Amino acid sequence: MLLNFQNRYPAVVRASLVILLLGAFGVDAKQVPKNQSQIALSFAPLVKKVAPAVVNIYTQKLVRAGRGTPSLFNDPFFKRFFGDNFGVPFTQPKSRRQNSLGSGVIVDPNGLIVTNGHVIQGADEIRVVLSDRREFVAETLGIDKKTDLAILKIDSRGKALPFIEMNDSDELEVGDLVLAIGNPFGVGQTVTNGIVSALARTQIGKSDLNSFIQTDAAINPGNSGGALVSMDGRLAGINTAIYSQSGGSHGIGFAVPSNMVRAVVRGVSASGRLVRPWFGATGQAVSQEIADSLGLDRPSGVLVSAVYKSGAAAEAGIEVGDVVLAVNGHEVNDPVGLRHRIATLPVGESAAVRVWRSGKIRAVGLQLAPPPEQPPRMEMELQGDQPLSGAVIVNMSPALAEEITADPFLEGVLLLRIKHGSPANRLGFRAGDFIRSINSHSVSRVRELKKQLDRKTDRWRITILRNGRSQELVINR
């Protein structure tokens, strides 16, 4: 009887039967429908409010594909009779237009749009299509590689555009209903619904800043850059990735939280270059063993293992051995979560940090400042009759490390770039190498390195640090 009742009775009667059955089995109903309008609940009013602010993004870029030279056309026998131009039309590189698509969200009525960086990466032309079919050419204001977010601008010609306000993503809870809006597979704007499955997912992707919202709302290719919307009609996050072995939705999607989106928009739109606050300390997640040894009642926080001497953490009095438990009342459980919390805050403000030290919880005030550029980088291109000719060297600093996504605690002279075909390139040096010593003389600054290279010698013994390993190269003149 229960299997067939849905087609035998009107909706109101079916709802009443369900409520009676729930009551009979001791299940409490949160709300009893009292009329037809309550039964016919729908997301439609919410979609009508926010969908116009979700746009389709189409990009084009010119791709040159070399076909290679077939051995037949290189054969001297044929060139003897037909000349050196034999086969040229078949061997020249071909150019083609590569199209891609994605989604974006208007976050300001003047035409400011947020999307994913990978949606527009390398594009020669970006076109934005609104839900009412209006089209605009978009300008890229900035791309933040650490969060895979990009900020675009379109000329609205003085007309206010529909936009979505951002909510406080810290207010989201696991189980909250959300909508995902985007352009999957290029079929057109599509809305799916689900719940927040998890928060603060940090082990996704390669970035050291992302702390994703996880949702089971269907997200597919083309949804990238689209909106994850909370039930109050505000932006909860930007859809950015899926976990899938087939390319389709398996019910595990990830979105960049709106608080991080707000920080990127604020930084990029103000100056075109995002400057984040830097904590100035690093460490490891607290395991059960570490928690037991420190007297913590459970594994939580980040155990500080290094503090930069002139960073914000050092200025606040944070020491090696401290455990950072929370930032502005929000718990942190690993280094990525800690960096994410700091990165969402504006430079120049202060944050309240809760620290565990010597069996007690302490409150620490942290002044949010950008990473210091100490020592000054002193960028220099090396030339002359020496093995590093053609390399661009620079003094490493936390500010430079943040720019190139390197370890900010590394110090010394870095090979920033190497000119193709130069002596440094031919001898096997690589961008990212650190020069530690030349002919047994330690070098820690650009001036010291340059001084050692200017010495007359018949042989160079150069020690480098590459990917954490020390290597020595011996070069004879």
Which keywords apply here?
477 residues; alpha+beta; Thrombin, subunit H; Pdz3 Domain; 4 domains; 7-stranded antiparallel beta sheet; 14 helices; 26 strands; 20% helix; disordered N terminus
Describe the protein's architecture and organization.
The protein has four domains: about 5-40, no CATH class; about 45-275, Thrombin, subunit H, CATH 2.40.10; about 280-365, Pdz3 Domain (Roll); about 380-475, PDZ domain (Pdz3 Domain, Roll). With about 475 residues, it is α+β, with helices and mostly antiparallel strands. The longest helix has 14 residues, at about 10-25. The chain starts with 10 loop residues before the first helix and ends with a strand. The protein contains 14 helices and 26 strands. The protein is globular.
Quick gist of this model?
The protein has helices at residues 11-24, 36-39, 44-50, 71-74, 76-82, 88-91, 117-120, 258-271, 288-294, 312-315, 335-343, 398-404, 423-426, 446-453; strands spanning 54-65, 94-108, 112-116, 125-129, 135-137, 139-144, 149-153, 177-182, 190-201, 212-215, 227-230, 235-242, 253-257, 281-285, 302-307, 323-327, 330-331, 350-357, 360-367, 380-381, 391-395, 413-418, 434-438, 441-442, 459-466, 469-476. The protein is α+β, with helices and mostly antiparallel strands and 477 residues long.
